[in-house]
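Q: What would this chain look like folded?
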Amino acid sequence: MVNYGYDLSGRLTVLEHVYGQSAIARAAYTLDNVGNRLSVTDEQGNTTQYTYEDLYQLTRVEYPDDQTVNYTYDPAGNRTSANGVTYTYDNANRLIQAGANTYGYDLNGNLTSVSDATYNNCSYNYDYENRLINFSDGTRTIQYTYDGDGNRLSQSVSGSVYGSDEYSYIYDINTGIPRLLVEKDDTGNTNNYTYAGRLLSRIDPAGIAYYHQDGLGSISVITDVYGNPLNRYTYDAFGSPRSVSESVYNPFRFAGEPYDANGLIYLRARYYDPITGRFLSQDTFNGNLNDPLSQNRYVYCGNNPVLYVDPSGRVVVCVGLVAAPEATAAAAAVGAAAVAATVELANEAKEAWDRYWAEEEVFRNKLKDMRITLKTGKRQDIPVNLQQG
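A: My prediction, written as structure tokens:
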């Protein structure tokens, strides 16, 4: 069962996954007057605190283990320092140095190389659509293929130390954002994924594993059918893993998106590096004149990764604006059906996703107004009408 709590403005304040009488995962948020998340407390009572500057860029994170990270930015929204590391950029907002690492780009602005002080190199290659097709760090190589719509069809990981893994993917493309339905590996194993608003479960030859997310959509805990934890994760504010405990396979991490062996997060149109808090490639959208941070085509979510996500790699979405009761009820109905009849879940999940993304489309179309609303401190009601299921 999933419990939700909201403030008087309809903003998410509590998301709790419960099995029996026990909380499997919990995220309780405190908010400022414009909806920025000031803190989050998990099911074990661990609290992380967040601080922002005037444009609501994240400037400070205080973690429950007493680690504190401070971020600074230039006027274009480029990160200039974090945790003792200094960042340098060229006039095109391309990161050229971070600490001892230097970065290179092609003529289209795609990241092509990263070199450290000991001359260890990572290389990146792209196709004519600026899609990443090859990564190599000298030890491991990862190759990607895509369909005509840009959906990732396969991933092949090889290397003398890491062995070889090949995966092929099938998506549900009838939703606002394509979602992974089937994943096959090179041994013939098949993983089937089901959704109910967010990722719900994975069905594989070993059985069923259930996903439990926080209010950003990041995977916090994976359990078996009896509610026993199998995997646990925590992240830093920009998505790098802080702690990982795994006993079963899982490709999804921060914001509920695929996390690759090279540390990149696949966000469909582009790949995101949570270490630098930047995309590897430029956005095709030149930005909004009323939102200067959107004009930096590498920055992730306006440097506010606690409240925003970018599942398409093209459009920032505010997760603090929660789904309407109709969508929540639809997701709950699908979740109940999954326990009773997993065979029928795929069709039911699709129906829930159709309703969910009908509302999400409104949020994406209203993104400009929402960001202006946040910055002026004035609340704006956005009417959403969902068809009854």
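The first helix runs from residue 325 to 340.
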